[in-house]
Amino acid sequence: MSREELLETNERLRAVRIRLEESYDTAKKALVTLMNKYGDSKSQRNVFNRYPMLKLMIKDVIRLETQYWTLVEIPKQEKLETVPAFVLRACSIMEKSQKSGEGVKTSAKLAEEAAEKRERMERLEMMTTAQIEQENTQMINDLYRLLKKYTGLRNLIRELKAEYGNSKIYPIFPRYTMLKDMIKDIMHDPDYMEVCHERVVTPKYVARSTKPSHSRGTAALPVQDYELEAITNLTLSNALRQLASLVLISNQIFTELNKELASVSERSLGIKQRIDNLSKRVEEFDPKQVAVLGSFFFHFVHLFSVGMKLWSSDVARIDETTEALVY
To answer: pLDDT at position 65, please?
Structure first.
């Protein structure tokens, strides 16, 4: 690529990154706000009061999916498509889709953007072609990672919208549980856990000096208040984010296990009390009482049989007397 093409690509990548960061921040903020509202709603013990709260907080998120101008559309990467080709194709698609309100800019805003662009061009003019190409490569890699994270959050919002729509056919009690499960699924999803605690920092780009350096290859080189982050540092940050996700998952698992152990211990205490009561009843058992009760029962049966015989004889005499009177 010529120097002019490299400069044009640099400007395209920078503009697309700014727009993508806006959509990424919007999606991330919506999901983080959803989790905060869900945590606050736990103080509401009444199901009938909490149910509309859950519906409202989910609607605030899926509204982003219905407002097509709020979140940009990102194409899927083909299997054999390279990272630079995919990023440039995504840039072309995002450039064609104009965001609502982008065409309305004040003169002050236009002057500010022109001044910023002039400063960027002056900085790039002081760099060699190799340095510009290296900066473009770094911007492509950073934009690719941002595209992947944004796509993960966008898919979560899209799935939440579909599940919420499907749950409308159910009555309040099963749907109440379904709404809670929808939010919990997002809370434990790796795509959300990777970004929920990060702070958005706009990266600074400069190319590394082409001159040999005696410092370590992993160190970042500051040039004119700009800094290019080392690849090893980026890998380490990704590893730390994954480790933080694993820690959150393990904490959640341990919390659930503690709850299960507490419930098991309560049940075991109840069973132990029943066993103790049964053992006391066995110790207090007296066979003589059973014998007395048994003899009393047989005596009652004997008296009942004698009474029945007397009653039958009286009935027979009454029948004989009645027949004599009739005849």
So the answer is: 83
Reported as a pLDDT band with limits 50, 70 and 90, residue 254 is confident
Q: Which residues contact 227 (CB under 8 A, 6 or more apart)?
A: 204, 206, 220, 221
> How confident is the model over 133-154, as a mean pLDDT?
92
- Which pLDDT band, with edges at 50, 70 and 90, does 42 fall under? very high
3-state secondary structure string, the chain? CCHHHHHHHHHHHHHHHHHHHHHHHHHHHHHHHHHHHHHHHCCCCCHHHHHHHHHHHHHHHHHHHHCCCCCCCCCCCCCCCCHHHHHHHHHHHHHHCCCCCCCCCCHHHHHHHHHHHHHHHHHHHCCCHHHHHHHHHHHHHHHHHHHHHHHHHHHHHHHHHHHHHHHHHCCHHHHHHHHHHHHHHHHCCHHHHCCCCCCCCCCCCCCCCCCCCCCCCCCCCEECCEECCCHHHHHHHHHHHHHHHHHHHHHHHHHHHHHHHHHHHHHHHHHHHHHHHHHHHHHCCCHHHHHHHHHHHHHHHHHHHHHHHHHHHHHHHHHHHHHHHHC
Q: What is the pLDDT of residues 1-39, one digit of tens each?
A: 788 888 889 888 998 898 899 889 999 999 999 999 999
Provide the pLDDT confidence category of residue 228 given band limits of 50, 70 and 90. very low
| Mean pLDDT in residue range 225-252 | 54
Show Cβ contacts of residue 242 under 8 Å, excluding neighbours closer than 6 positions: 194
CA–centroid distance for 171 within its chain: 23
Rounded to 10 deg, the angle between the 47-66 and 129-166 helix axes is 140
Question: Residue 266 pLDDT more than 90?
Answer: no
Backbone angles phi, psi at 226, to 5 degrees: -115, 155
Tokens standing for residue 72: 């940009």
